[in-house]
Amino acid sequence: MLNLEATPRPVxxxxxxxxxxxxxxxxxxxGAQITQLALPLLVLGVSGASASExxxxxxxxxxxxxxxxxxxxxxxxxxxxxWILLGSNLGRALALTMVPVLYLTDALSIPALCVIxxxxxxxxxxxxxxYIAYLPVLVPQDDLVExxxxxxASYSVSQIGGPGLGGLLTKALGAWFAILANVVSYLAAFVLxxxxxxxxxxxxxxxxxxxxxxxxxxxxxxxxxxxxxxxVLTFQAGWFNFCEQAIMTLFLVYAVKELHIDAGGVGIxxxxxxxxxxxxxxxxKRLGEHMxxxxxxxxxxGVASCAPLLLSLTGGSGWYDYVLSVLAFGIYGFGLTIYNVxxxxxxxxxxxxxxxxxxxxxYRMLTYGPFPLGAFVGGVLGERLGLWNSILASAxxxxxxxxxxxxxxxxFIHAAGQTEQTS
Length: 423
Prior knowledge:
Elements: H1 16-47, H2 51-62, H3 64-67, H4 69-78, H5 81-104, H6 110-138, H7 144-173, H8 175-194, H9 216-226, H10 228-257, H11 263-273, H12 275-291, H13 293-306, H14 319-350, H15 356-368, H16 370-385, H17 387-422
């Protein structure tokens, strides 16, 4: 189990390679948050697309979690993870450059945006597996919770500044220009990661016969299944992510079309709501120390799962809708960030470094795979049932998943944790 000692360890602030990784991830996340807001608005603005088309483009960016991530894990365990991180950032920058090019030449279309979204999503899928596998090489195990807390704090800061900046750029100069800002952020992240000095072996295998093989992709799923805690966490994350993406896809359309909130207003809502994520990142380690691993996960996931129900109370007018939306995203972000900090650190602690790339890829395929399905289903439900009804239904399904996790899954986590502590 994780060592959650409360003793301060300032060593991370002297770990310059970690600081470069942290800085590069922060810059890239700010840019990614800009695109997350600007891309759906670009679809709505340029083509007058429907909710299902917005869901289709969003889903294409998330689809690589199913078809690219497993192969990425294999490559990450075979090759230099630093170079994989560099290539991923460069690939994302080049793909997104096509958006302003196509827009300025009047060639932008839904199929073109789908292709660009898929390429960007593929590079992101590779990057996110690689940096999780790379972090335990740069950071001692006792510092993993703190390091992941800092990375989650950066993600929260990007959620605060990114959507607001994206909304302002979109409102002032257009969504295509906001996406261009994301290109700059990926190039800046490339430079910061290039400056990392640490050189780690790509795999612990010393002979060619021991190197990862294509068939090892499937054995990684077996590793997740055999480990009781990882199995429970995988099921819960997949269910939650499906509901989350459906809600987010629906809310962006709902806010613009029914609440009559412009791009700047949506950005402000997401930015203020992200303050909850920042608070969660700051509180994660201390809550884990006081509540214990199992209780922390159940409580944090419950907060995140129930918060979107507040969106069902919107539909009034003016400031009322703004306040409810900010509260919904703030409370949701607070719980989810605490949950993620401890789950990621736990996986990095129990999975051997020689297979962490493949195991992380398998986990992300099973938990991120529902993202595109959630985006697509959310868009279809929005057209069939109405946007408000679909948001409520998705939020209720999220709560149902948490109830199963709290009543059944937490027992497995607690029991397995007791076994590991006494073995």
